[in-house]
Amino acid sequence: MAIFKGGAASNNPARACNSAVLATLEKLMNLVKILLAALLALSSAFAFAAVEVNKANQAELETIKGVGPAMSAKILEARKAGAFKDWPDLAERVKGIGSGNSAKFSGEGLTVNGAAFAGAPAPAARGTAKAGTAPKQPAKK
Questions:
Q1: Which long-range contacts (CB under 8 A, 24 or more apart) does 96-105 make?
Q2: Which of 18, 49, 117, 125 lies in disulfide reach of 102, CB 3.0 to 4.6 Å?
Q3: Using one digit for the tens of pLDDT, what is the confidence trace for 73-94?
Q4: Which CATH number applies to 51-111: 3.40.50.1400, 3.30.830.10, 1.10.150.280, 2.60.40.3080?
Q5: How much is the pTM?
């Protein structure tokens, strides 16, 4: 009975077993954390992957924010006549895609022949006037 009363962990088989189990569980938890981190990194890489308009199916097109079932159907229907050459070709052949939506869809990851849309003006920086507008004049007293 002296084995189970007090003393160092090395003298107590139950404590030695518990510490071995705890060490194994700690290693297992570290492995789970590493696997979860790797899975998260991999899934985020897929989330930012480009969607090529000439190769994507309906479900892939609909991963682009703003492209719903109706727009993806229009894109697929127009693509039956041949691959899109560039963004202007896409905008010309698909009703509802102009320069605004082209810039929006491109920003969300849509590409045409691997190219992003380059025709949209850069957004104005905060605190600066928009292009084509005069700065506001202070009110007269």
A1: 96/71, 97/71, 101/66, 104/65, 104/66, 105/64, 105/66, 105/67
A2: 117
A3: 999 999 999 999 999 999 999 9
A4: 1.10.150.280
A5: 0.53
